[in-house]
Structure formats: C-alpha cells, structure tokens
Amino acid sequence: MITGNAEDDNVDFHSGLDSGPVFPGPALAAFGPGTITSVFTIGSTTYTVNGQSQGMDVAPYIDSNGRTMVPVRYLAESIGVPESNIGWNPLLRMVTLSMNGTTVRMVIGVPVITVGLDPQTMDTSPQIIPPGRTMLPARFVAQAFGYTVTWNASAQTVTITNVAPQPVGQIGSAPFAPTLKNLTVTVGSTTDRPRRWTRPRRSFPADARNCRRGSSPRRSGIR
C-alpha cells in the first residue's frame, strides 16, 4: 500500500486542494442540468468531463486492493463538488466533501467512508502519495453522491456518470401533472377522455313498465 508521511501532506487547509501546479477544473455549470460523465484512465494525467479534456498533475492508479485511486480535487470537481466544499483537516488527516446536502468524510489510512452520520466500511482506504497528493477510491466517493461507476478493464478506464433525476410528473422540460382533467387514453385511432361515473339506469320488461302499483299489466299490444 502506498502511504505518505506528515511532511508530504502539503494540502491547503482552506481550499482542500493539493499543493503544486493548478489546472483549470471543469466548468460543470456550462453543461447545465442533465448527464455528467467523467472518465479517468489509469496512468494518464488527462481525464474528460462530458467529452472535454482536463489536465491533472498526478495520474490515477490501482491500489493493492484493486481499487481505482483518483486525486481528491479532480475527482470531487468532476462530479460537481464546488472547490469551496472540498475541505482538509491536517490534524485529523480528514477529507470532507459536501454537495447538495450530502457530506462525505474520509480519513487517510482508515477504510471507512462516512456519509452524513452513517459510517460505512470500505475494502481500501484513502492514501497520500509523493509529493503530497491525497488519493481517494473513486467508486466509494462517487456512489456516496449517487453516481454510477463502471470499469472498463480493456481500456483501463473508470467512468463516473450521473443522470439528473426529473421531478415527479415532469416529462422533458415541460411540467406535466397527470390528473383526470388532462389525462387522455388512446386506443388505436380512438381518443377518449375519462368521464364521470354515473349509476346505470334500471331496466324493466315492457309489461312491467306499463304496470301500475296494485293493478295488472296492460294487455294492449301483448299477445
């Protein structure tokens, strides 16, 4: 397992960003709502967000537990965590990521990820590699924020995707509230709107309809 020492842990306390060269992060706001897809390649310092290439100063790798490790800043920003919400506590050696009401905490060397107040055991742990880069397991972090993670063994890539959920009753961008007033049922080429249910009329034989209380049925027309 790759580890680091306190001297190598040169992380800015306020921004949570590793020291060293700074590359412009992905401007996720430009993509708008919808699908965000980030792809990291093992051994490559280039990754993509929705097809746009971005640079890193350290490459992802697979640790001794078979997990893909990605530098904290680029992993966080690739899934939309604002830079201001990437925190680092040098005393506890703890990384904190916050987005959309979800807070994730991880401690260097500890195989536990805490989502909100719920600690969950992992089969690997965050690491620090020279010259002081904090590396997090991509799958655990992304899934904690509701993302889907897939691994391509032949291409040595990990793809992180989030499909923005649509509000209930909304189709596309137009609000749609399925009620009896606007619900239309189509069968073949016939379109019917639902009608209010009414009690069916009672049906009586013709002779019964012509019968008065206490009298016999009329015989006219009956043979």
Supply the key terms.
five-stranded antiparallel beta sheet, 8% helix, 223 residues, 18 strands
Please give a structural write-up.
The chain is mainly beta. Helices cover about 10% and strands about 35% of the residues. The protein contains 3 helices and 18 strands. It has helices at about 70-80, 140-145, 205-210, and strands at about 35-40, 45-50, 50-55, 60, 70, 85-90, 95-100, 100-105, 110-115, 120, 125-130, 135, 150, 155-165, 170, 175, 185, 190. The longest helix has 7 residues, at about 70-80. The protein starts with about 35 loop residues before the first strand and ends in a 14-residue tail after the last helix.
Order of helices and strands: EEEEEHEEEEEEEHEEEEEEH
Distance between the termini: 105 Å
As residue ranges, the low-confidence spans are 1-25, 27-32, 164-187, 218-223
> What value does the average pLDDT take?
73
Overall geometry comes to: globular
Structure class: mainly beta
- Percent of residues in β-strands: 25-35%
Per DSSP, the total helix count is 3
Largest beta-sheet characterization: 5 strands, antiparallel
This entry's quaternary arrangement is single chain
Helix content: under 10%
Describe the strand arrangement of the main beta sheet, using strand numbers: 3-2-1-14-13
Tally of extended strands?
18
Radius of gyration of CA atoms, rounded to a whole number: 32 Å
Question: Could you give a short description of this structure?
Answer:
With 223 residues, the chain is mainly β. It is built from 3 helices and 18 strands.
